[in-house]
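Project outcomes to date are best conveyed with an example. Our students and postdoctoral researchers have been running inverse folding experiments weekly, and each run begins with a structure described purely in tokens. The record below, which covers 98 residues, was selected by the lab manager from last quarter's runs and is presented without edits.
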């Protein structure tokens, strides 16, 4: 997958406040509430994240990592990462039961 970083502070589409540990994703790929593990060459960005946001540029197999520092977000750029689902979001769990 591809990853980018964003630094706009505020409220996410789920109502959460942006903070470390939040990513934006295409809800068709990762529904809100999905917990994912991101592995990247930049170790300080590797870790567990919760999908709490979407974004106009986040379509398909892309995740957008919230970073509070805009300069760091720009330095992150766009890079290839490995993403593993730790826990599917509530919408995905409901769809699986139907």
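After processing, the design step wrote out the following sequence:
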């Amino acid at each position: 997958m591809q990853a980018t970083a964003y630094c706009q502070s505020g409220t996410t589409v789920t109502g959460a406040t942006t903070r470390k540990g939040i990513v934006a994703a295409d809800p068709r790929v990762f529904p809100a509430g999905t917990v994912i593990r991101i592995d990247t060459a930049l170790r300080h960005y590797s870790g567990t994240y919760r999908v709490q946001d979407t974004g106009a540029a986040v379509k398909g197999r892309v995740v957008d990592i919230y970073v509070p520092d805009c300069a760091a977000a720009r330095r992150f750029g766009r890079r290839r990462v490995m993403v593993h689902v730790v826990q599917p979001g509530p919408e995905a769990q409901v769809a699986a039961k139907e």
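Helices lie at 70-76, 90-97. The domain at 2-97 is CATH 2.40.40.10 (Barwin-like endoglucanases). The training component of this project remains on track.
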